[in-house]
Amino acid sequence: MAGHYDYFEHGADIGVIGLGATLEQAFIAAASATFAIMVDPDRVQPCASRVIAFEEEDIELALVRWLNALLAEARLGGLALSHFELTHAGSHWQGSAHGEPWREAHGRGTEVKGATLTELAVTEQAGRWQARCVVDV
């Protein structure tokens, strides 16, 4: 089963929640939630790819690193991203992001500046993972 996402209220910023049967699915869903704030994912074609790799032992910090690495790649490449993949083995995380250059047809939602440590939590209960944090908008 693929992951899905939701949001929670947080003052002037936005809380994202990624849910999945695996840790990776929850992180992917959190990425989808983050980028859906900026652009309708159904309008983005996955024709450009970026590889994301990093080392992080702490799974909560890994969520923030994952989201911020994706945001940096999108910003540097002028990309709208909508499809994500991620695996990890121990402290090594390897993922990819797919999208296309920003274009007028995408429209522009709210810019996400970065993922924060605010309300950061990665938990597993009854075989379901939840990855959540506040993103700065």
Structure summary:
The protein has 137 residues and is an alpha+beta fold.
List strands and helices in order, with pairings:
Blueprint: E1 4-10, E2 13-20, H1 23-36, E3 48-55, H2 59-77, E4 79-89, E5 92-101, E6 114-115, E7 121-125, E8 128-136
Antiparallel strand pairs: 1-2, 2-8, 3-5, 4-5, 6-8, 7-8
Helix pairs in contact: 1-2
How does this structure look, described?
- Helix content is 24%, strand content 44%.
- It has 137 residues and is of the alpha+beta class.
- The chain has one domain (4-112): Archease domain (Archease, Possible Chaperone, Chain: A, domain 1, 3-Layer(bab) Sandwich).
- Strands 1, 2, 6, 7 and 8 form a five-stranded antiparallel β-sheet that branches. The protein has a three-stranded antiparallel β-sheet with strand order 3-5-4.
Q: Main β-sheet, in a few words?
A: 5 strands, antiparallel
CATH homologous superfamily descriptor: Archease domain
What's the CATH first level? Alpha Beta
Q: How far from one another are the termini?
A: 30 Å
